[in-house]
Amino acid sequence: MKLYETINAANWCKHALAKTRAGCIVGSTRPSAVTWCLMGMQYRLGRRVESRLAEAIVSLYPKRVNVYPRKARYIVISFNDHPDTTVEDVIRVCKLADV
After folding, report:
1. To pair with 80 at 20 to 30 A between CA atoms, which of 32, 55, 56, 57?
2. Whether the predicted pLDDT of 38 surpasses 80
3. Residue 36 burial (C-beta neighbours within 10 Å; 0-12, 13-18, 19+)
């Protein structure tokens, strides 16, 4: 299953790999997790595709990448948590990265 087939407005979050129904931060593979950020969702699905995601993010949204060093993990996290990023943006990135 592709990330873009899994992520939606009901299960996406910011500022944590995953959260419970009560909004508590938990690990992305915890059974109590009900929402995930882009990094957390890839961990939940057992995938490691942050390099491909980072390339798509830099291509589509270069102004939302303000991290140094520009490591893939940090690019994905900063994009996900950027104030202007929406779930539609996240899905667009996943589709471009084909993940």
Report:
1. 32
2. yes
3. buried
- Asked if pLDDT for residue 68 goes beyond 80, the answer is no
C-alpha–C-alpha distance, residues 15 and 2, integer Å: 22
Say which residues have a Cβ less than 8 Å from residue 20's Cβ, sequence separation at least 6: 26, 30, 32, 33, 34
- Cα 52 to chain centroid distance, Å, stands at 12
Q: Which residues contact 60 (CB under 8 A, 6 or more apart)?
A: 89, 92, 93, 96
Confidence band of 69 (pLDDT split at 50, 70, 90)? confident
Q: Against a cut of 0.90, is the pTM above it?
A: yes
In the 8-state DSSP scheme, what is residue 50? H
